Structures are given as structure tokens and as C-alpha cells.
């Protein structure tokens, strides 16, 4: 991929003859060594542990074949964690992508020609850079019972008669977690989609305008189809990110009530580092997560391949 | 160009959109603002109702927080040390790796690039169990080394650097230096790195914030209270000790978010630019 993009094959070959190329290995070496030590080895160690019975304070691990995988298939809490993770992600992602598309459309509309787009964009993005741990604690106090700011506000304006214990309700807690994810990420998605729209050839829109297409028609007939690869990319990166959800649910309620916001990573964390220290269970759950992530990443690779015909040139 | 009716409609649409954007803006700011205001109010004031106007209780909230052993300055220091060191490592070695991938032809280059692309998509969280055991086996629990050194192999940074270098690199840049007999590493240091300054600045911001906000990894590796990073300190605010000390709790949250909000007010242009250019995910 890289070799063909730069149009300097001749000079490159010249450099090759001068035998500088061995430096490629030298310069890549640190990355490669640290990749092996801190990514590759831990990943395979995790996979290895998923086939052992290592738990508690034991130091020796015995191979148990696929027993852990059979167990985890029957583990109701893990199944719930998987379901929760997807529920939380979908409830956050659907409104997120819709709003981001609308915002990106409005921000780039020449007919509307809105002012202050940069200002609004930077404010919509703000929650994304704030420490997720802090965000979780902020929302746990804003929604707290009985005298949290939101309860007090709703009592004062008379919307409710008695305070609501949000974190006792499965639905409310899930909605709050999904809302936080939505709130932290729609700004980012908007920016990516806007960059995508801006990279579309202006002539297409001009031609459509000459043919009498409305703005909305241009959007649905030109923008949307051309944005398909980027949308898929956003979808899958968001999904992979969503599968790793930990900070918010863990610090908001610790997974409760009734394990309603227990996610795959909170499950892994709790299995490995709390109570019985079931490293084998946690490792097995990690492998399941790894398989899911790999599957979704392969989809991204394909989306990259379709996108390769029309490279996205970024910032405007 | 447009008839008046159409122009009027556009005006109306614009107005509605500005109202909508203002609501979203408030949604972005209000949660933080309420927390900051509450950090200046006493516990009874906080329990009376919501306010958007600061009160005069900040100092006493701060002393309460300090008396509970919430050592925010230590947290700042620890997080800063880890974030700064790992950012420097990741910038230097990612640029070096990107340079190698662009300039040289060598066997296995395609495989390395494939590995890097895979690494971008597969988050480190999936191997924390193996990572934890590995670090425990080599005796580096309660140590910052496992939080810093992995930054040498930072795939997303390599990806970004390579994209940038592709747009600016030309063999003529280095050929004359080679003829003058400069070594390859010297060429990288004196010619390439300075040219990459814009990309380095962008990735410095993202790398720093990413490390600063990291919670899971320090949570499993660090037990020593004096070594807690900022997100770990924030976690303490959810414990029972703060059930009644609302002012102190809000003060703790405020102190954890104010540095980022300040940084953002100065650097938001570059951050938005970085997201636009690379679709960077933290």
C-alpha cells in the first residue's frame, strides 16, 4: 500500500542501491520489541490462561481444555454482561449517528451558511476530553437520591412530587449510561462525518443544483451514499469502543442495579480482581471479547478496502 | 437569487438551528458548571436546591477535602509524570517507526504495517489479564514502568505520523544530507523530526490526554495510595466518606476536571483539527 502511493519509485530504488534499507529494521526495532513484550505476549498469555484453571491465590496453572469456554457459555452473569454491553451501545449509538449526521449536514449546508460552526463544534466535543472517571462521578452526583441537583430541580419546578431513585431502576440506569456515552461521543462523530462530507467533490453538488435538486435531495442522493464507507467505519470503531465500556458503568453504579449495566469489561475486572480472583474466567471472557473485536475489525479492514478507491483527505 | 419567501424560510430555519445548538451547548456545559458551582457551596446549601451562581464556601470545602487525605497535588503530579513520559516515548518512537515504513524498503514491512493496523482496532483491554500476570511475574506491580513503556509501541500514533509523513516526505529532502555523509539517525533527528512538528503537536495533545484519563490500567496495577493517578483519586469520591460531605466531593470533582477544561480552552482548535484530520479515537 505504502510503496505505491509515493510517486518516487526511481529515487527510492536509488536509495535502495545505496543500501540504507537495513536501517528500516533498526528504526522499527523498538516498536517491534515493545509490541512483542507489551501487546503480543500478554495477549497470548491471556489466551493460554483461558485454557487453565488458574484462580484464587494459586500459582500453578493446570490445563483444562475447553472447560472454561463451556462454563462461560453457561454463565448467566456473563451472558447478561454481553447483552448489556450491546443494549447500552445501541441505545447510545442510534441517536448519536442520527444527530451527528444532522449536525454535519447543517454545518456543511451552503444554503444555510451557518455562523459559529467552529464554536459549536468545539463545545459539542468538550465532554469527550474530560476524564471518564470524573464524568461518571459527576453524573452519579447529579442524579443522586434523594437530594441530588436533578431531583431538587424537578421537585422545585413541580415536575415530580417525590424524588426519584434513578439508580434503583434498571431502565433509568441503562438510559443514563447510554446517555453519557452519547453525550461524550456525538461531537466526535459529528466532526468525523463533517470531514467526510467536506471531502466530497463539490462539482457533484453543483451539478445536482443545476439539475434542480433541493438541498435535502443532494444530501440523501449524493452525500449519504458516498458517506457509506465512513459511516461503516464510525459504526465499527464505535462498536469496538463500546465493547470496552468500563469507566462509566463501573464508577456510576458498579454494574447495578440487578447487574443491569454490568458490561464485559466490568465482568472481567470483577472476576479477576475482586472476590475469588477467577483469572481463568476473566481470561476466557477476554478471549470471547477478543474474538468479537477481531471479527468487527475485519469488517473495518474491508471498509478500508472499499474506501481505498476514494481516499479521504481531511481537514478543511 | 432566492425569492423573499424562500429567504424568510431560511432565516427561520437558521434561527431554530441556533436555538437547538444553544441547547446542545448548555447540555455540554451545564453538568460541569453545576459541579463547579456546588464546589463553592456548603452541604446545606447544596441540599436546598440547584443553583447556577457560585457561593463563598470553596475554601472550607477544600480544607475538608484535604483533611480526608485527598491529595490532589500528588494526583496531578503522578498523572502528569506518567502522561508526559509516555507521550514523549510514543511521539519519538512512533515517528521513527513511521519514518522507517515510508523511507526504507525491507522484508516484512507489509507484515509490520498489517500488525499496526490490527493493533489500532484491537484495544489493550482485551489482554489485561495476561498483562497483569506478566507485570506481576516480573515484579513491576506498583510501578509506573508498565504504564509508561508500552507507549513505545503506540499503533494509532504510528498511523497518524505515517499519514502525515506521506504528505510531506520527498527523497530529495534527505538525499543531499546523505551525500554530505550524515548518518540515517542524524537525518531523522535534524531533518525529519522538525518537519513533523505539526503532527507531533497534535499527537502530543491526544497522547497526553489519553494517558491522563486512563483509569483501568492504573486501577489494576497500582495499590499504593501515594501512587494513585487522578482518575483513581476521583474514584475515591464515590466511597462512603463523602456521603455527607457534598461540598468536598464536588470540590474533588472540580479539581479533577478544571485542568482539562483550561487546556481545552486554549487548544480546542488543534484538538478539533486533529479529530478532523485523523478520526482520532482516544
Automatic annotation (TrEMBL), chain A:
The chain crosses the membrane at residues 23-44, 86-107, 119-146, 230-252, 281-304. GO terms for cellular component: plasma membrane. Belongs to the binding-protein-dependent transport system permease family. One of its GO terms (biological process) is transmembrane transport. Gene3D superfamilies: MetI-like (1.10.3720.10). PANTHER family: ABC TRANSPORTER PERMEASE PROTEIN, INNER MEMBRANE ABC TRANSPORTER PERMEASE PROTEIN YCJO. This is Multiple sugar transport system permease protein. Residues 82-300 form the ABC transmembrane type-1 domain. The keyword Secreted does not apply. It holds the Pfam family BPD_transp_1. It is found in: Cell membrane. It comes from Alkalibacterium olivapovliticus. InterPro entries: ABC_transporter_permease (IPR051393), MetI-like (IPR000515), MetI-like_sf (IPR035906). It is a multi-pass membrane protein. Its main location: membrane. Signal peptide: none annotated. Keywords: Cell membrane, Membrane, Sugar transport, Transmembrane, Transmembrane helix, Transport.
UniProtKB/TrEMBL annotation, chain B:
It is found in: Cell membrane. Coiled coil: none annotated. InterPro entries: MetI-like, MetI-like_sf. Keywords: Cell membrane, Membrane, Transmembrane, Transmembrane helix, Transport. GO terms for biological process: transmembrane transport. The chain crosses the membrane at residues 15-36, 80-104, 111-132, 144-161, 199-222, 247-267. It is a multi-pass membrane protein. Residues 76-268 form the ABC transmembrane type-1 domain. GO terms for cellular component: plasma membrane. Its main location: membrane. The keyword Ligase does not apply. Belongs to the binding-protein-dependent transport system permease family. PANTHER family: ABC TRANSPORTER PERMEASE PROTEIN MG189-RELATED-RELATED, ARABINOOLIGOSACCHARIDES TRANSPORT SYSTEM PERMEASE PROTEIN ARAQ. This is ABC-type glycerol-3-phosphate transport system permease component.
Amino acid at each position: 500500500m505504502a510503496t505505491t502511493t509515493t510517486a518516487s519509485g526511481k529515487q527510492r530504488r536509488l536509495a535502495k542501491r545505496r543500501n540504507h534499507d537495513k536501517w528500516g529494521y533498526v528504526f522499527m526495532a523498538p516498536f517491534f520489541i515493545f509490541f512483542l513484550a507489551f501487546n503480543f505476549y500478554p495477549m497470548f498469555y491471556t489466551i493460554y490462561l483461558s485454557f487453565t484453571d488458574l484462580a484464587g491465590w494459586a500459582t500453578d496453572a493446570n490445563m483444562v481444555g475447553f472447560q472454561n469456554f463451556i462454563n462461560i457459555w453457561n454463565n448467566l452473569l456473563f451472558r447478561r454482561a454481553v447483552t448489556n454491553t450491546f443494549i447500552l451501545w445501541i441505545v447510545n449509538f442510534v441517536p448519536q449517528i442520527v444527530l451527528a449526521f444532522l449536525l454535519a449536514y447543517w454545518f456543511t449546508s451552503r444554503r444555510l451558511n451557518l455562523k459559529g460552526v467552529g464554536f459549536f463544534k468545539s463545545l459539542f466535543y468538550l465532554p469527550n476530553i474530560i476524564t471518564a472517571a470524573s464524568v461518571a462521578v459527576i453524573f452519579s452526583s447529579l442524579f443522586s437520591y434523594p437530594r441530588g441537583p436533578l431531583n431538587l430541580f424537578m421537585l422545585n419546578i413541580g415536575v415530580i412530587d417525590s424524588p426519584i431513585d434513578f439508580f434503583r431502576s434498571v431502565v433509568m440506569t441503562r438510559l443514563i449510561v447510554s446517555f453519557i456515552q452519547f453525550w461524550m461521543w456525538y461531537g466526535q462523530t459529528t466532526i468525523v462525518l463533517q470531514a467526510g462530507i467536506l471531502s466530497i467533490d463539490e462539482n457533484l453538488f453543483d451539478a445536482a443544483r443545476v439539475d434542480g435538486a433541493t438541498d435535502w435531495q443532494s444530501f440523501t442522493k449524493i452525500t449519504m451514499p458516498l458517506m457509506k464507507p465512513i459511516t461503516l467505519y464510525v459504526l465499527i470503531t464505535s462498536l469496538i469502543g463500546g465493547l470496552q465500556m468500563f469507566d462509566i458503568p463501573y464508577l456510576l453504579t458498579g454494574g447495578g442495579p440487578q447487574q443491569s449495566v454490568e458490561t464485559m469489561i466490568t465482568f472481567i475486572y470483577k472476576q479477576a480482581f475482586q472476590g475469588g480472583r477467577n483469572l481463568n474466567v476473566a481470561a476466557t471472557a477476554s478471549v470471547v471479547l477478543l474474538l468479537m473485536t477481531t471479527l468487527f475489525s475485519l469488517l473495518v479492514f474491508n471498509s478500508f478496502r472499499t474506501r481505498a478507491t476514494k481516499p479521504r483527505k481531511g481537514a478543511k | 437569487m432566492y425569492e423573499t419567501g424562500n429567504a424568510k424560510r431560511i432565516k427561520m430555519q437558521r434561527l431554530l438551528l441556533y436555538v437547538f445548538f444553544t441547547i446542545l451547548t448548555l447540555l455540554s456545559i451545564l453538568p460541569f458548571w453545576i459541579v463547579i458551582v456546588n464546589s463553592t457551596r456548603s452541604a446545606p446549601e447544596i441540599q436546598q436546591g440547584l443553583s447556577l451562581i457560585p457561593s463563598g464556601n470553596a475554601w472550607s470545602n477544600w480544607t475538608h477535602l484535604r483533611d480526608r487525605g485527598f491529595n490532589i497535588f500528588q494526583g496531578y503530579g503522578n498523572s502528569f509524570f506518567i502522561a508526559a513520559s509516555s507521550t514523549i516515548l510514543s511521539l519519538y518512537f512512533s515517528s521513527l517507526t513511521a519514518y522507517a515504513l515510508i523511507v526504507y524498503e525491507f522484508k516484512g514491512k507489509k507484515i509490520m504495517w498489517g500488525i499496526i493496523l490490527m493493533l489500532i482496532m484491537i484495544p489493550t483491554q482485551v489482554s489485561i489479564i495476561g498483562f497483569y500476570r506478566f507485570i506481576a511475574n516480573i515484579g513491576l506491580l506498583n510501578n509506573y514502568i508498565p504504564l509508561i513503556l508500552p507507549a513505545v509501541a503506540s499503533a494509532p500514533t504510528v498511523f497518524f505520523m505515517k499519514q502525515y509523513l506521506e504528505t510531506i516526505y520527498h527523497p530529495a529532502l534527505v538525499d543531499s544530507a546523505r551525500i554530505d555523509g550524515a548518518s540515517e539517525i542524524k537525518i531523522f533527528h535534524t531533518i525529519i523530526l522538525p518537519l513533523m512538528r505539526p503532527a507531533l503537536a497534535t499527537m502530543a495533545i491526544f497522547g497526553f490526554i489519553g494517558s491522563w484519563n486512563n483509569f483501568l490500567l492504573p486501577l489494576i496495577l497500582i495499590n499504593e495510595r501515594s501512587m494513585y493517578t487522578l482518575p483513581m483519586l476521583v474514584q475515591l469520591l464515590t466511597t462512603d466518606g463523602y456521603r455527607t460531605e457534598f461540598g468536598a466531593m464536588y470540590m474533588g470533582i472540580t479539581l479533577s476536571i478544571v485542568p482539562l477544561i483550561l487546556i481545552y480552552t486554549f487548544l480546542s482548535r488543534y484538538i478539533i483539527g486533529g479529530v478532523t484530520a485523523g478520526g482520532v479515537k482516544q
